[in-house]
Amino acid sequence: MIRKIYLILACLILSEACALGEEPNNIGKELNLTLGDTVFIAYQNNKDIQIQENELKVSRARILGARSEFIPKLNLNAGYTHNDAIFSFPIILNPKKDNGVVAGYKNDNQISANISETVYNGGANIANYKQALLGLRTSQETLRAKKLDVEFEAKRLYYGLLLAYETERIAEELVDQAQQHYADVEKKFAQGTSSRFDLLQSKVQVSKLMPQLVSAKNSVDLIMADLKKLMGLKMRDSISVSERLHYAWIEIKEDEFLQQAYLYKPEMILKSLGVDISKWSIEMGKAGWRPQINASAGYSYRSNDWLDMFNSRHNNWQAGVSVTVPIFDAWSTKAKVDEAKAKYAEAILDKDNLIDQIAVDVRQACLDLNKARAVINSQKDNIEEAREALRISIVSYDNGVGTNLDVLDSQVSLAQVEQNLAQGIYDYLMAQASLERTMGKSIFTEGKNEKKD
Q: Which domain covers residue 245, as residue numbers?
């Protein structure tokens, strides 16, 4: 929790400093990150996530707007009108009221309050409100999908950086071994116990390995730059990782994975919400066939003198109900309903299509996990044998039994086994990350079913 608070403060200070055009000198320059830290900072600085968070506010505002359709509307009106001529009554229509309340005045001052309510509009208000509620859930699931996408990209780069560091280490060790062997061969050549061919061969081997080392170092820098970009950091900032390339076996339960993906994958939930929204669109379209009932009431004061307005001779009130029954709308409502039904059918087919794709994605992830696990097991068991083979080749060459080529081959073989193991672990981690993305599972989700190795 303390670490998370620190990261939040660091992100806020960095953002504020950048917004002011300042160059922070000591803050945010060095960050030692776990995978969780990387994902958290990427969440904070990702523009797509920030946009979707604002979209949540839009959805909540739409719910408020849809709910307001069920509440009576109250308006207060005031005005002044000067009439050149007015119609006058020779007979007093109501002795308790000023005739001007009906006919008007040359200097006509009015103030009124009116209340109106849509009693029933064919169910359109209800459908609109239901769609607004579903829209909020849609925004929430879209936000979760954005976060899972950012998390998957963070995993790819973080694990890629760990693999790059491991590849750099292997390349450095291979170059060191080649340089050390070249120095030994050079001494033997000076003593006359090694041939010039062995000397040249060892020297060429060092030259051949140097580009691999340079490429490994460049890969570290390139992935580091991509990771900084994802996290919203500056290229000048320094980051380091506090983890190493390791894995944790997970039990393969394809049916269980598939069930979780159907229940929790954001895209699956979005498709279900899309079906529900389309269903309510049909009800909204059908409202055009149903009666419309509205009610209103008002209370007003009207006088030719503001100072003599608020009394019983100048007040008036009205109330009423209106009912509209549609008879013929030139098939406008039918067109809307047919369109909504077609989109509803499309939404169902779209959902079914995603169900099939999820099954493929889960199967692919399980196959990738099994493949990577087989590579890890095979290469892990061969590392000690490769090291022993290298030791034997060196001893044999020193004793004049083995050849220089045996030593060089053993060095490359050991590096290749180590590289295969590192690549296997990376592939396993990415297969697991892909499976978790398909299942809608975040690293912040509790209760992971895994066994440490």
A: 31-71+123-290+328-452
